[in-house]
Design brief:
The complex is a heterodimer of chains A (about 80) and B (about 270). Chain A is α+β, with helices and mostly antiparallel strands and about 80 residues long. Helices cover about 25% and strands about 35% of the residues of chain A. Chain A has a five-stranded antiparallel beta sheet with strand order 4-3-2-1-5. Classes of the chains: A alpha+beta (about 80), B alpha/beta (about 270).
């Protein structure tokens, strides 16, 4: 699943970045490396961008970025609590 | 701009960033992520002795100010707040070019103590570029409120740089910060930061590039951290060569030569 499709209120763990070059560098600089837990918290009325909590900071990302971030949704209660 | 005036080369370079070197003040750069209280630290250190303008050719505000400590005057340059030095934006390029080419006598990286994990990325990028780095752990009061305990000594030990906790809003720790700047500038302490080690493939490629760059950049190689430059080239960063060209050379053959290097060796690392 891509981060774009992570439902609001859910947490996901980054599996892989499929972006290349500058875009990839940008995402890495924002702290999105494999294993990072991301929570989708709200979405703009037009559906894009979406705000995420990433390493303690709220960041708004557009689908043109989140389409390149592969995540697995955390579904187990204990994963969510500990993440 | 030529490089004939060797002795004043660095000063000429600094002039490119609107630095007045007639006073011969040590130059201190202030870097940090956005929202870390960097400007509060800046104001706390310089008081009202500051002036603002723009970075040359950019619509990004530059603030400079002076402060005195132990009878010595220092010039502090506030760099744009960035998450990275790897030049995705104008702000990042300014911060990077300043540290890389104006070579401040010391660089203070202001970090948000409540969110160290995010802030240490920039710290490591700065220490990769320059030795004289001071980590200023700001917002210590907020960290305390959030029950975050920071092992300052451990951090100092891991990073191998001075670490100064501050609450810039209340002026706490600023004297210690000035003292550390003073010690570094006057070589009372010598800093050798911890450096990230890359895989052997990357380190070998860097080594090769450094050799090549040393011949290619003869005469200006002492102004540039070639190891760092090689890493950027391996990443495929083309803006760095443009910056070097703008600052040092008007010779067009330089760019074509370096483009060749990027194309042959610029593989998709990282």
């Amino acid at each position: 699943m891509y981060l774009t499709n992570l439902p609001l209120g859910s947490k996901g763990r980054v599996v892989k970045l499929t972006a290349k070059g500058k875009k990839r560098r940008r995402l890495l600089d924002l702290g999105l490396i494999p294993g990072t837990v991301v929570e989708a918290i709200r979405r703009s009325p037009s559906g894009d961008p979406t705000a995420y909590i990433i390493r303690g900071t709220v960041l708004a990302l557009r689908s043109e970025e989140t389409n390149f971030i592969e995540v697995e949704e955390l579904t187990q209660r204990r994963d969510i609590l500990w993440a | 701009m030529g490089l004939t005036a060797r002795s004043s080369g660095l000063n000429l370079l600094r002039e490119n960033f609107n630095i007045d070197y007639s006073k011969k003040n040590p130059i201190i750069a202030l870097a940090g992520n956005p929202n870390t209280g960097k400007s509060t630290v800046f104001n706390g250190l310089t008081g009202l002795r500051q002036h603002t303008g723009n970075w040359p050719g950019k619509t990004v505000t530059q603030a400079q100010g002076n402060f005195r400590y132990q009878g010595q005057e220092f010039t502090l340059i506030d760099l744009p707040g960035t998450y990275s030095l790897l030049a995705n934006s104008t702000e990042e390029r300014i911060a990077r070019d300043f540290i890389c080419f104006a070579r401040p006598d010391a660089t203070i990286v202001v970090a948000d103590a409540t969110n160290l994990e995010r802030n240490l990325n920039l710290v490591l990028q700065v220490t990769e570029l320059t030795d004289n780095v001071i980590l200023c752990l700001n917002l210590m009061d907020e960290a305390e409120r959030k029950n975050i305990k920071i092992d300052v000594a451990g951090l100092k030990n891991d990073l191998q740089i001075p670490v100064v906790p501050t609450v810039a809003r209340d002026g706490k720790g600023l004297k210690e910060l000035k003292n550390t700047v003073y010690d570094i500038v006057n070589k009372n302490i010598v800093v050798h930061p911890y450096r990230v080690k890359y895989s052997p493939e990357i380190e070998n490629a860097v080594e090769e590039l450094v050799q090549e760059l040393r011949t290619m950049l003869t005469g200006i190689e002492k102004y540039i951290n070639l190891h760092w430059l090689s890493l950027r080239l391996l990443e495929g960063d083309k803006t760095i060569m443009r910056s070097i060209k703008d600052l040092f050379l008007k010779d067009d053959s330089f760019e074509t030569k370096t483009e060749g290097v990027v194309q042959t060796d610029g593989v998709n690392y990282i």
